[in-house]
Amino acid sequence: MATTSRRLTARTRRIGRDDPRHDRPLLELLPGGAPLSWVRAGEGLVGWGCAARLSTSGAARFADAEAWWDELSGRFDVDDEVGLPGCGPVAFASLAFAADPGESALVVPEVIIGERDGIRWITTIGEPDAEIEVAPVHPPGTVSYSDGRLSSSGYRHAVTEAVRVMRAEDPELAKIVLAHDLVADTSEPLDERFLLHNLAARYPSCWTFAVDGLLGATPELLLERQGCAVRSRVLAGTVWPREGRDDDELAAELLASAKNRSEHAYAARSLAETLRGFCSELDVPEEPRVLRLRNVLHLATDVEGKLADSAGGAAGLLSMLAAVHPTAAVGGTPTRAAVRRIAQLEGMDRGRYAGPVGWIDTGGNGEIGIALRCAQVEDADGGWEDDSAAPGSGRGGGRVRLFAGGGIVPDSDPDLEVAEVEAKLLPIREALEGVR
């Protein structure tokens, strides 16, 4: 439900070069508490405070978000002197992967600072203290790890079972995307900004995000909209660094892999087929490229299109999200049948892992990624039913639940799949441990 029913005033002003906030990195402007972030290569949006909030769940979560944002957008009195995408009121969004269970959240900050094309601005909603002092960032102390709801051995078993299902029980299934989680306890209270700073430093080409306690650095852009232009980056097919192999050799291996190429082609094709229903023009490259990150290499395809007139309106992006999520890259092939198998094989609640995350504005613009390489900040008891099973309970420190996953196909090797998700957990583990 919404946290406000009153009219709201939103003011956007350009931050001048004489303002000390002009040249500081966006993430360094966050005062603490519950940060909101969508930053890549130094540009994007950060926010704090809460002017309005929606919590929703179930199959209608996208429709609920659309209706709420459309209604709330009509109650803003907007004074915007900049006029770029992301100016004026913005809702940071994080939606659950599955209809049941999982809670989705949209948060409208009281203060938003953004930067695009070298122009920096500040938006305030109501009368917040925009000059709030930025508290020092505190490290989390000692980090210890323990099994999550699906341990490494449990993940290996799930992969083995998925391979059996695809080979013997349901041969029409070509791919199932499974996830693994890991619990990290910290000896000191967790400052979410510590993770964000470290992630941004090591993965500047990814989108560093924080929404309602879900933090990460994702390389995958589900949908971006600027006016009538729409864009998506599809990732599917992965290799990771191994001793004796340099990046060029790994990239050549990835491009030559029939397994990875087939997996990627289906993901790109299925996304394009859905998106085409919203577009008058759509460009899908025939060949993927290789996206190189510190911990893995991916096959990537950037899809670009022009929206048809019927896709207009402030909530058009949310309507498109409902249609394209989940993609084959994070669900499987064919996607609906694969997603039904995920809950059976994993036996855990993913929450908002692999769900849409990003921001939308009242003009219909926005950037929404897929919540990958991420961690969910949990309460002191971490949501565990049995406190004795929650290492570190009551220590006064913090707890986060780390996630990573991979696409499983009929010829997947369970041991290699376990190695892949361990490689994908590195960004969050290193961020927690202060590695830059």
From TrEMBL:
One family name in Pfam for this protein: Chorismate_bind
Gene3D superfamilies xrefs: Anthranilate synthase
SUPFAM superfamilies: ADC synthase
Segments forming a coiled coil: none
Ranges of residues in domain Chorismate-utilising enzyme C-terminal: 153-424
Protein name: Isochorismate synthase MenF
Natural source organism: Saccharopolyspora griseoalba
